[in-house]
Design a protein that fits this description.
The protein contains two helices and two strands, in the order ααββ. By secondary structure, it is an alpha+beta fold. A two-stranded antiparallel sheet has the order 1-2. The protein is globular and about 40 Å long.
């Protein structure tokens, strides 16, 4: 577990996804919040982010979308 009691795999996922989020934000400073949300959602669908499946980090995809 991490210092805050967060499991290490969750911490690793959070840090990775936060890093990608910062990159997206810095490259799109003039975009609206809605536009940024669309960019992030596309990156999730395209596997740029990470999620936890069966205690392993895997690339994201469109699973779970409604």
């Amino acid at each position: 577990m991490g210092a805050s009691g967060q499991p290490e795999i969750e911490k690793e996922m959070d840090l990775y996804n936060n890093k990608i989020g910062r990159i997206i934000g810095s490259r799109n400073k003039s975009k609206s919040d809605n536009s940024l949300a669309d960019i992030v959602q596309q990156d999730v669908r395209n596997g740029r982010m990470r999620r936890i499946v069966k205690e392993k980090l895997v690339k994201t995809n469109s699973d779970g979308e409604r």
